[in-house]
Structure formats: structure tokens, C-alpha cells
Design goal:
five-stranded mixed β-sheet; phosphoprotein; 54% helix; histidine kinase; HATPase_dom; transferase; rod-shaped; disordered C terminus; Helix Hairpins; alpha+beta; transmembrane helix; four-stranded antiparallel β-sheet
Length: 464
């Protein structure tokens, strides 16, 4: 389906356009009813006038007492009357009918008029009959005036209702399209806000204030307050992480100094080791929170540049290969010889991949596979494992900061690894999806294509 067809269908389904169509239908129906009522009234008046004329004609023939006299009068009237407008026929008793047409009597008393020397009118006739001088007198008048009235009203309908409907429909659609565009702007802004783009705003409306303008202004105020609150929370988080990192590092140094003065394998030394591990864990949490705040604040956007995604992935895999094998896991890589080229910050992409590898190592049992793949169309990478995976209803939650699955609370970690990956994906306008690997989890990171940047792909180079 073409874009134009989709746009037209979207326009027709919009509430303003439907309201315009309903308004046009109401206007058309009102005009049709008024014209129809006028036509029916005038038509009834014409029928009454024709019947009155016929009654007068019949009354004028009642002065004739004999069939011969009535036949003579009918013949004289017939010669002076156009049968296309008025018909007069007399059927004398036992004689030949006279008049400017012929009448055929049907069963049930119905009468059919057929042409005589001259043609009859095409509009039909309204007739009256009367028994006179022992015979049957028929007078009929053409329904041509009623047909002409019908043609007049049809023309009036075409030249009045047609332009009215077209003009009303045109103006209604123009106004509805303007309202539909404003509704689309509101929907687009709300969609951007729903995916985390808190800078989204509706453009100022130059039209006079109406309900849509008030809704748009409300959306902008809500977005501004949400952005300010989020920015304040981000700043507070960054400030806390920054301010506490130094004291924690000092505590770590003091604990290490204390540990050096304690005898090995003593209970105080064991407590010092546990305290040092907890401090290191707290330091790593604050470090990760600072990194997320810096990325979300756009501080890394200045270093964005085109780079070879495959090369970066291979370097990270080579770095992690020994430690993965030592942990009893199997790491594989499916990557083109060169490319694809994407636009981003290579060190951040490397950090995201490292977080995904460590996440897979941490949450899969010994002997599990970790499969890494790089794709060129669309450009992206994926990390899959055959571990327990993540339930579908939890996949959105694990991207939140400090969120951990119930079964993972006893394992090392702080719930910020995937949050950091999500922040890096957002910085690069990349889509991050968590999928079922049947079994296990597959994390897919897809980047927007770099114009003209896709390099030719070579053969796969699996690394084991």
C-alpha cells in the first residue's frame, strides 16, 4: 500500500474528518428534505389543478342530450386540441368511437389510451370518465407539467445541493485536515515522550486558542515538568555518586591498610576482606551510575564518529576469550571480515558488549554457550546464551537501574549492567531488544544505517 493511500486512510479515520463528513451529510439531508417537501407540495397542487380542469371539461359536455350531438361536439373539440396535451374520446352506444385518440377498455374498468392520427404525450395522462348520452366519455390531460416540475427540481437539486455539498465538504475537509495534523503532532510528541525523549515539544500554534491548543499547551507543560524533574533526579544521582565515590575509595584504602596489619587466616582479616569487597561493590555501583548519567547527559556525543563495528567487536571478544574459557564457557563469534560501518563512540560500544558478555557469564551455568554475531543489514550485533533466560514480563524491567531478578539476588552484580547498555543504545539511536533464544536470552542491538557506510562483507570468521 502506498504512503498516499495510508495517509488518506488515516485522514478518513480521524475524528475531525468524520465530524466534517457527518456535518456535510446533515446539511445535504436538510437540503434534500426541504427540496423534496417543496416538490411534493407543488406536485399535489398540480394534480388537483388537472383534476379540476378535467371536471370542468366533463361538465361542459353535459348539455348534449343525444349520442349524435355529443359525438359532433367531441369531434369538433378533438380537431382543435393537441392530443399530446389533452385527449377527448367518446364511445357511443353501438357506434364507432370518436376523438383525437383511441381508448381500449380493459378488464376491471381500466382504460388504455392509444395514438390516433396524432402521437400522444410521453409523460402519461390523468383521465376522468363519465356516462353520457348512453355512451362513455373520456377526457384526459397530459402529465407533462408534472414531468417538467420533476425536471426543474432535479436541476435545482443538482445546481444547489451539489455545490453546497462540495463546498461544505471541501471546507470541512480542509478544517479537518488542519485539526488532524495537530492531532498527529500531539500523538507524535506523546510517542516521543513515551520512549524517553523528554525534549519533545509541540510547536507553537499560530491559530486562535481552541481545545487542541489548550491540550497542546498542557502536553508541553507536562513534558517540561517531567524533563526538569528527570534532569534534577539525574543531577542528584550524579552528585551523590560523585560525592560518595571519594569517601568510599578512602574507606577502601583504610580497610586495605588495616588488612595488611592483620595476621592471615584470622577472623578480623576475614572481616576486613569482606568489608573491602562490599566497598568495592559500592564503588562499582557509583561508577556505573556516573557513567549512565554522563551518557544520558550527552557528554559522550561529541566523540561520535563512523567506525568499523566488526573490528570493535572482534577486539572485545579477543580480550574476553581467555577469561570465558577459564570460566568453563564456550564463546563464538560470527562476524564479517570488514564492516559494517556505524556512527558512534567505539569505546562505549565496546563497554556495552563487555557488559553483555559479563551478564551472560554471571547468569549462566558452567559449560554454557555465548554466541556473538555481527550483522550488516541491518547493522547491529547480538549476544545470545543458552542459560535460564529472562521471563517475557521481566524483560522491560531488567533495563531499569538497580533492578534484579529474584533468582539473581544471590549472584554478584548490582543491576546496572543492562541499564548502562540501554543508555549507550539511546545515545546511538539504536534499538535494544531482549528476545527468547529458546533456551536462554538473546540481546540484540541494531544501529541506524550509516549513509554510504556499509562496507563489503567477507566470509564469517568464527572465533572459538
Amino acid at each position: 500500500m502506498t504512503t498516499r493511500a495510508v495517509s488518506l486512510r488515516h485522514l478518513i479515520r480521524s475524528t475531525p474528518v468524520r465530524q466534517a463528513l457527518v456535518l456535510v451529510a446533515v446539511v445535504a439531508l436538510a437540503n434534500l428534505m426541504s427540496l423534496g417537501g417543496a416538490y411534493l407540495t407543488l406536485r399535489a397542487d398540480l394534480v388537483r389543478a388537472i383534476r379540476a380542469d378535467l371536471a370542468g371539461d366533463l361538465a361542459s359536455f353535459e348539455i348534449s342530450a343525444t349520442p349524435a350531438a355529443l359525438s359532433a361536439i367531441v369531434q369538433a373539440r378533438a380537431r382543435a386540441t393537441d392530443p399530446a396535451k389533452k385527449v377527448t374520446v367518446f364511445l357511443p352506444p353501438g357506434g364507432r368511437q370518436v376523438g383525437n385518440a383511441r381508448a381500449i377498455l380493459r378488464e376491471g374498468g381500466d382504460i388504455r389510451l392509444v395514438p390516433g392520427p396524432h402521437p400522444l404525450g410521453a409523460a402519461g395522462y390523468l383521465h376522468e370518465t363519465r356516462r353520457l348520452a348512453g355512451g362513455l366519455l373520456i377526457v384526459a390531460e397530459s402529465l407533462g407539467p408534472i414531468a417538467e416540475l420533476r425536471r426543474t427540481f432535479l436541476s435545482l437539486l443538482a445546481f444547489s445541493l451539489g455545490p453546497t455539498v462540495l463546498i461544505s465538504l471541501g471546507v470541512g475537509v480542509l478544517l479537518a485536515r488542519r485539526s488532524a495534523r495537530r492531532v498527529d503532532d500531539i500523538e507524535d510528541t506523546l510517542d516521543r515522550l513515551s520512549v524517553g525523549d523528554l525534549s519533545a515539544r509541540l510547536p507553537p500554534d499560530p491559530a486562535p486558542a481552541d481545545d487542541l491548543s489548550r491540550i497542546g499547551a498542557g502536553v508541553n507543560r507536562l513534558a517540561a515538568r517531567q524533563e526538569a524533574a528527570t534532569e534534577a533526579l539525574r543531577q542528584v544521582t550524579a552528585d551523590i555518586a560523585h560525592d560518595l565515590r571519594t569517601p568510599l575509595q578512602r574507606i577502601s584504602v583504610l580497610i586495605q591498610d588495616l588488612r595488611a596489619r592483620l595476621p592471615d587466616e584470622s577472623e578480623p582479616a576475614e572481616l576486613a576482606d569482606r568489608a573491602s569487597a562490599e566497598v568495592d561493590r559500592a564503588v562499582s555501583v557509583f561508577r556505573a551510575m556516573l557513567e549512565i548519567a554522563q551518557i544520558e547527559g550527552g557528554q559522550a556525543s561529541a566523540r561520535v564518529q563512523p567506525f568499523d563495528l566488526g573490528l570493535t567487536v572482534r577486539q572485545v571478544v579477543e580480550l574476553y576469550q581467555p577469561s570465558v574459557e577459564d570460566a568453563g564457557h564456550c564463546l563464538t563469534l560470527d562476524c564479517p571480515g570488514t564492516g559494517p560501518t556505524v556512527r558512534g563512540e567505539p569505546s562505549l560500544i565496546a563497554q556495552a558488549l563487555a557488559n553483555l558478555i559479563e551478564n551472560a557469564l554471571r547468569h549462566t551455568p558452567e559449560g554454557s554457550r555465548i554466541d556473538i554475531a555481527v550483522s550488516a543489514d541491518p547493522p547491529g550485533l547480538s549476544v545470545a546464551d543458552d542459560g535460564p533466560g529472562v521471563p517475557e514480563d521481566e524483560r522491560g524491567k531488567v533495563l531499569r537501574r538497580l533492578y534484579r531478578l529474584e533468582r539473581s539476588r544471590t549472584t554478584p552484580g548490582h543491576g546496572l549492567g543492562l541499564s548502562l547498555v540501554a543508555a549507550i543504545a539511546g545515545l546511538h539511536d539504536a534499538s535494544l531488544t531482549l528476545e527468547d533464544n529458546a533456551p536462554g536470552l538473546r540481546v540484540r542491538l541494531v544501529f541506524p544505517p550509516e549513509p554510504g557506510g556499509l562496507a563489503a562483507t567477507g566470509s564469517s570468521d568464527p572465533t572459538r
